[in-house]
Amino acid sequence: MISDRVASNLKAEFRRNLLPKIGLVVLTAILLMALFAPVLATHNPNTTGYFDDGTSYPPMGTTAESYEVVDGERQSIEVEPSSEHLLGTNNVGQDVFSRLLYGARTSLLVGTLGTGIAVIMGVPFGLISGYFGGRIDDAMMRVADVMLAFPSLVLALALVGVFGSMTVSIPDPFVAAGLAEGMPSSTPLPGTVTLVVGLVTWVWFARVARGEAMAIRNEEYVTAARSLGASDATILFKHVLPNSLTPVIVLATIQVASVILLESSLSFLGFSGTTLSWGYEIQQGQEYLRQNWWISTIPGVGIVLAVISINLLGDWLRDSLDPNIEGEGGGAA
Amino acid sequence: MTTDILRVDGLSTRFFTEQGQVNAVSDLDLRIERGEVFGIVGESGSGKSVTARSVIDLIESPGRITDGEIWFNDDGLAEAVADDHPEAVDGSFVNLLEVPERVRRSLRGTSFSMIFQDPESSFNPSLTVGEQIAEAVEVQRRASANPRSTRAKTREYSLGSLVLSTVLPSRKYVSEASRERAIELLELVGIPDPVERADEYPHEYSGGMLQRAMIAQALAGEPDVLVADEPTTALDVTIQAQVLDLLDDLQEETGMTILLITHNLGVVARMCDRVGVMYAGEIVERGTLEDVFDDHVHPYTEGLLGSIPDLEGPTARRAADDRAEKPRGGGRLEPIPGNVPSLLDREMGDRCYFADRCPKAMEDCLSHPPEYDGAGSEEHEVRCVLATREYTEARALPTDYFGKADRAAADKHADPDGTETDVQPERAESTVEGTGGERR
Amino acid sequence: MAFGKFLLKRSLQGILVVWGVVTVLFGLRAITPGDPVNLIVDPAVDLETRERIRQELGLDEPIYVQYGDYLGDLLVGDLGYSYQSSRPVATMVIERVPATLELAIAATIVALVIAIPLGVISGTRRNEPADYGATSFSLVGISTPNFWLGIMLILLLAVEFNIFPTGRRPVAFHDALWTFLTTFYVGDLLTWLHHIALPAVTLGTYFTALITRLTRSGMLDEYGKPYVTATEAKGIPETLIRYKHVLRNTMIPIITVLGLQLGTLIGGAVVTETVFSWPGLGLRLITAINNLDWPLIQGIIVFVGISYVIINIGVDAIYATLNPRVLDE
Amino acid sequence: MEGADNLNAGRRSVLKAAGIIGTTTGLGAIAGCLDDPNEGEGTEEIVITQGEIIENPDPNDHITGPYFNVLDPVYEPLFNVTPEFEFEPRVVEDWEDTDDGAELTLRDDVVFHNGDEMTAEDVAYTFNRMIDPEVGIESDQAAGLGSIDNAEAVDDTTVLLEHEVAPSLAEYEYANYGRVVNQAWIEEREQPVAGDSADAFNGTGPYEVVEYEPDVQVVLEPFDDYWGEETTLERVVFNADGESSGRANALETGESDIVDNIIPEDVPGIDDADGVEIREETSLRNVFLVMKSGVEPFDSTEFRRAMNYAVDNEGIISNALGGYGAPMSQPIPEGVFGYNPDLDPYQQDVEQAEQLVEESGYAGAEITLYSPEGRYLNDADVAQMAADQIDQLENVSCEFNTAPFPDISDANSAGYDDEEMPFFLIGWGVITGDSDYGLAPFFTEDAALETLRNQEISEMILESQTIEDESEREQQLQEINAQLREEAPWVFLHSQDSVYGVREDLEWEPRTDESIYLWEIN
What we know:
The complex is a heterotetramer. Chain A is mostly helical. Helix content of chain A is 64%, strand content 7%. Chain A has a two-stranded antiparallel ribbon. Chain A is elongated. Chain C has a domain at 97-279: MetI-like fold. In chain C, α9 crosses α10 and α10 packs across α12 (238-276). The longest helix of chain C has 39 residues, at 238-276. The relative contact order of chain C is 0.14. Chain D is built from 15 helices and 17 strands. The longest helix of chain D is centred in the C-terminal third of the chain and has 18 residues, at 470-487. Chain A: It is a multi-pass membrane protein. Chain A: Pfam families: BPD_transp_1, OppC_N.
């Protein structure tokens, strides 16, 4: 599936351009942050801590304004950052930096798993539709049209309404191994959201796979294989599937970015179930914009960096492999 | 007595790609007489298209004309630019590379026009053929309505006018009269039902029809020089003959000058008065048709004649070389062995560029040869030491002289797809392109 | 003729799609756990009353009967009644359409007005600073979640510098326009503009970025095509080449992409309306989902589905006009 | 003034609390605020921006507090209610208890906005419309009128209400829920009354609706033929804005004069702004964590009490609620009949909590707390802090997730042994003002929202419903509350404060019942 020529194309494009390098560095950093969150985090992200006056610490290097009640009168005071909290604390005293790390876990997990579900659903659907063509194709494409008629966020909202949030707790290996004392013993994965982002994006994969299948179905070697008595299943699996992988890989990369945006939108709207999510954090911080600007701002930077880096890598793959893809791409938010 | 209409001196056109500098055309001289058909022939990648495009200023980034002069003979133009650019004028000749781009552009369509290789990709697919020809007519109409000196300025058409034209027909660029003239032109090039055909889109035309339409479009500006870049390559053999006939007839009728670019010696033989053979950005042999076909010196020319697939029509109106006859009889090609040369500056070296493929390469070939006079007419010149001495085994280079290293370099430059490395603007562009082409 | 047939075919497909949407929604509704009656009445209300309400709403009927009823009602434009407010869903949907439409159109205008010139500049001045600027902008633009962008705009332009309001829609555009046309009082229009500015930019940024990107790469692709050189050789003005030929052909594929992206626009509207308290369909949908007000959820989504289908037919029609080859295929 | 005399000094009734299960402060409602530059400023016009306003014009078909605020000036209440919760005559001039009910004497000069005279028939119809399923609509208010059996017009100005309960109980009900509608007018319409224009209203109140946009805006102007005193306000605008920050902004920019439900984060901004201020009052809405006693580990009283010891109510109140709340000591809030003043809230005591967990036998338990988001004041923050405090116990691990409110609501009515979601945050307003409404649905056997199965307490509650004697009944209820504190069926958190932003020069004080009466504004 990845020939030498493709590989050398990839290498050449990578070497020639600065952007994929930036993308790779940033994404690797985010991946490492997500993976080693329990080790890197300075605090348990769930630990609330509070002060009698409800103050939140600002990020290092900044100060914030707060209020103190003296004799029943509110007085403005300046809050200094705490060296304990690199990026400050949020409205319930949780460490913003640690939550940023854990938020990366949620985003990347949902992004990859959700895209995985979409691939698993969409690719076979598209291959079958494109390979057999005719009425089967017509019928299946009408189903795809119905899916496309739902704006993905709207459909996702409806599905979350149906299924609830179904968070799944994934045990944390670092904590289990005793490497991260005091960190949460499991990471909550917003199950419905993961499922839903898969359910609303699979159709893009179906379209791409269908296009490939239609192109390959009439290739001579496929005709030859058929004349040699290979079954449809064999042909689909041995010839059509491998050939459709390149565009699927490119689309999947781009879709991870768009799924991350979709997840963050759902969390922002309060439908993800977990609070360890960038989108949720932004929503929580929205009410505190006047004094605590950083609560919303910092996780947003996380999302933008993650999505940009994935998009950069997606662009690189697309330019190197040059598949013919039309898809939702970019962002669904 | 014939007069020159175009003189090219020392033209160098280079492409500055990420892989390095590509010398598509180097130090090239050319002289075209008014009313003649001059042919440039060569393999893909020899620089013949770039030469043609350089002449009519269609070289696009990353390509650039880096050196040379292009003298165009036009009294009116000379007069119009003499005041502002005296250094660019020599009698009735104007050095096009010394005048502002604006002036050069003003020559497009009316002084020079061009027929492209692939008619189907050379028409805008979303406008009717009639509209596109009418645009070319409009250029001519506006030009002839204005004196030479102000012509360059009238070529402007503001964005504001374009926007207005969507609501005000009077602001449209193309006038009704031009549309009518376009239909006449379609008729002239032999398109049946031109009125209906004018309203059709390019995809509704057959290839041959479309090439006729392209010729009509090129004629619209009533150009002094028509550049025909592989005008028949994309067409079926039978259609090729028709199109060549058409060009022939039109040339006879109008007396216009044609610069014909082709890789097909058959076409040359049938159309041209004089011919230049290009290799690696240079003209390696030039002269009258007889000079090149009968008295050719350069082994490359010989090789080319050997690779003629078919000389259709009354090709044998002049006796061709024995070797040229052979393939016709044998029905098989005898292509020149070896690869198209690398035009990358750093890989070119200072030798005869053909030496690595030349069956008669000698030690003398290791320095770059000048142009020698050849036998036959006085027009005959050839850039090969064989014009001065016979080939001797004694001085021959060993067969593996250029070894693997050199060859590998050439391969590397070659397109990864293995397709021809024709350094045409588009291709050079797309090499650098790389990051573009988002498709969502 | 070909065009009429084409439209008819697409319309029939569209009806099929809408039917599919309704069916999927009913499927979802059927598997949704929980008792809608819980959401309508006081939890303390006794079982007998609940049963009566269930009957009144037809919830005691088998799901296929409800489905049939719904389809029948839908044909005559009846979307049922909201559980929460007892109002006709059709009314509740229609009354929110202007706000969302205003927002969507304003965002589209923002996007087109910024993106096309930006894309053209970027596409014609490759590798110049303007191109780098536009390319970076579009990369960041498609990677930024619009709710965050909205919040950042509020933080900067509303909270910090107090230039724009934080949200809300004090006056409807059609009312403001009417006031202006009848009394020449421009204040309402200005108020409307003042309030819609941030939401429109928020919703429009993704599209601005996307169209810039598409226009840029489309122009580059297009400029690489032989017909452009051929057109240049004709000697027609540069403006005409750039806009009448290149940009026009660039826009053709972009139009279909935008049709497909309409869903993103609607999704974006939901989020943007939430951030700015813009009283459109999106905000109503969120409320409906929070209350699991199925008739309303269904009504809004069916409406959106129908609009989507209609707009896409329109897009296809435009596409067919611009790209005549479609009709022949 | 018999009704008023019946009120004990310590017995303050809650006439109406906002919403059965609280109010939405988050995503629920929408925006819309008038800043029409045409309008002159002045004391004659007042703009009130609430988190939500009516989305349905039927006065008998809702029980949400903010809705009453909008509708009461139009469909006036039968009785005036003082801030001290005393009933005073309004449309009803006099009322008397009879053997089998109560007799209301009405004014004879009341007219509807459409010009019809109000009759006793209209009043009787109004009550029957709500309580009799055969007449009119399924009203949410029916629950509040549970003990009234029938209403009948005796003559033009007299209505007889039948009931079989203690007179004081019945009085709470009919005095709270009477909003007269015009029988003839109503019967011409589909029910409940819907519509989205000013024509959809026809009350007897001092104001009539001149503009109405559901969910967005209602504009009122004085009704010229009103029987009572002329109103002081010439125009009243109710706007909806679902975001606290939006409401605060409307107040600060002078677009609005009174805004409700200001969250703590927006308080400093209003404090700083000129000419406006914060006014607050305790409300009677509780927020607590339900622990279903039929599900492990919550079937252990020790465990449930441990949870109460683990949580620091006061810390949560001062931090997540900015201090706008009061810790709960028992299932019902202070001010409700039957509240036991001798009980103290649980104080956080981690050691004791851990020890109780050990005793319960559920050491090492792993539980998950669910919370809605945006339903109650900073609900998810509150729950997140509580969950974290429980998680801090050595021998319990507690995760936290948010869940859509419909899921929480389903869990709430799923029975005391439903395993699906046994631990969640929810709120409850005791809308009848009597402990019974806060106790019976949760703690009697097979009740709609049963969270605790305890036969003894269940029987005590049922018994209390039949006790005729006021003080004896109060004692019984106080005893039940005391026992429930020990049983700890919930993690008792807090009762919220209502926080308003008000123009400084406006004479108006918030009420514990969260009503905004236009006639109390000067």
